[in-house]
Amino acid sequence: MSNFADRLMEAVEHTGAPLCVGIDPFAELIPKAIFGDPREDAVALARFAEAVIDQAAGLAAAIKPQLGLFEAFGPAGYGVARDVCAYARSQGLPVILDAKRGDIGTTAEGYVRASLGPSPGFDADCVTVNPYMGADTLAPFGAYAQAQGKGVAVLVRTSNPGARDLQDLIVDGEPLWARTARMIAPLVEGLKGASGWSGLMVVAGATYPDEARRLRAILPDCLFLVPGYGAQGAGAADAMAGFVASPRGLRGGVVNSSRGVCYPPGLENETRISVWKDQIQRAMQSARDDLAGASLS
Amino acid sequence: MSNFADRLMEAVEHTGAPLCVGIDPFAELIPKAIFGDPREDAVALARFAEAVIDQAAGLAAAIKPQLGLFEAFGPAGYGVARDVCAYARSQGLPVILDAKRGDIGTTAEGYVRASLGPSPGFDADCVTVNPYMGADTLAPFGAYAQAQGKGVAVLVRTSNPGARDLQDLIVDGEPLWARTARMIAPLVEGLKGASGWSGLMVVAGATYPDEARRLRAILPDCLFLVPGYGAQGAGAADAMAGFVASPRGLRGGVVNSSRGVCYPPGLENETRISVWKDQIQRAMQSARDDLAGASLS
What we know:
The structure is a homodimer. By secondary structure, the first copy, chain A, is α/β, with parallel strands linked by helices. Helices cover 43% and strands 18% of the residues of chain A.
């Protein structure tokens, strides 16, 4: 059984850049003439997401379905999200399920089975979790991930403005997010692969490069999952501020782009699948090249 | 359109006690001879949950389905959870969906639609949310709840041992959970009903009565959602430490019991529905009477 961090970093080497394609299904942005209207039939979500995955092969190192946006379409949307995970894996793409779960013991185990577990679970490679309830609520995710070669991505310093409200509060001279990072440190070793990287990922927003650098110092072996690149305003250099230089480019995690690569401007009314494919490919290639060529400032 | 806090407190007056029945489906504890095995067919979950709801009528002021334990049974389990919410509402029971969601703007709106929104959403009366990502991630829940007469229950001080890891860290002389409480205070007024109580609920663990009293001082008008009573070891007086005395008993929220009322010892191998019903009724009546008779120490 392979290790998630190794699988993810192999995919980064294979594609040449740490691009993660986020699949955020918005009914108003999906080209309905091509895929159908997901508000009428959730299968349109599957058609759209699987077409995005087809374009991402060879360009993206991972895909990240945003579960909340599938859930917005009800139980059918939730079911489609699982099908999308299975399809991505069948295409060789690691899946980071963006579910942001978190709960006490037995319920945490329920979420572990639902997200990382085999059928009827999503069998994702990695799942995002929320640390507010404490280390004992993350332990079931860590234990399962270690046993099954999966990953866990913990929200540490998020990319939204409100991240300041709690995460930046000062505790004993350092921000809360640094305490969160120290709290999860005991899980690092168990998820470490032959590459030396750990499948305990930390969510570190691209919009806060200084924090990413400090976070790298606290957790040198953790892969970062970086939201906020592109649509949320951060460039490649900021997004990878916590990465490290290698002969083949910056390494140390994956940078997510959702709107930027899935919804190029003006495409929501497109009727021709060939045009849509071409535009999506271009957007993904552009993001890939941008990340591949970035250097630390 | 009525207000959630008013509906919940009317239900407390009607039943005479602030009992919330938590529906936590555990395959190993559900009497399979009566309801079927949910690992083979998720419809067994619906049979079990709806039978619990039938017994809860007149005794419970609300029900709280634990979504993570439904999700453990895959998309079918997720779908059953929505059916269970609809059934509870059809029986006049307010539904607090225990989903512990939290995400940035557009995704938060997805979770709002999924949990509180009408079909294909769950149309729950209230949903639990995680505050780690900040006030902007709670705002979409607050806005929708205010517009539609729903509630939002924010994790503030949870009942698990690991709650100490982050929630109790000291920030400017007070614990983080107190900062969380101050952060959500601007949402209180918008969810306030004619009763004077606000449908902005705070999750305050029964296992930490001192914290509950301090929390009441910070948020005098918020209803508490109290986990940790019964199976997690806290008695009625501790569970209601943050409640206030009224001529009809302690008021100020609801106290959740899941295992204690849904899984009386030895019942997992029961084959007779009549015996099961009788035992569940007894357990619920006992919890109801315990909470109805409690006084502040």
